[in-house]
Amino acid sequence: MGIVYEFEADTNYSYTVDFYGFEDENPDEIIGSSVRKGTFEIDGDSIFFRDTETVSWEKGFKPEPETRILNGEKYGSRFSIVGSTLTLHYISYPADAPVQTQMEFERFD
Known about the structure:
Helices cover about 0% and strands about 75% of the residues.
């Protein structure tokens, strides 16, 4: 799986998740993808997103890209940037209770 955030100077952003084949079958082939697009805003150490659309497809189940328009509801997380690393701090909801979670992303041009 590969995850990429792209932030534009005009406050638009996209969040792409690509899913790859299994180790024993085409590990370098993208077999599915999901892209969220919308806007973002920064307030102190928090970043807020408003998703306006999502496009997704899966090789075996939904090979044609499907676009859904979203309502732009605001959600966010705390963030920090150290060097070229963006860390998002948020709450995830696994099986039965909320858990403090973080993801790190390396900058590339």
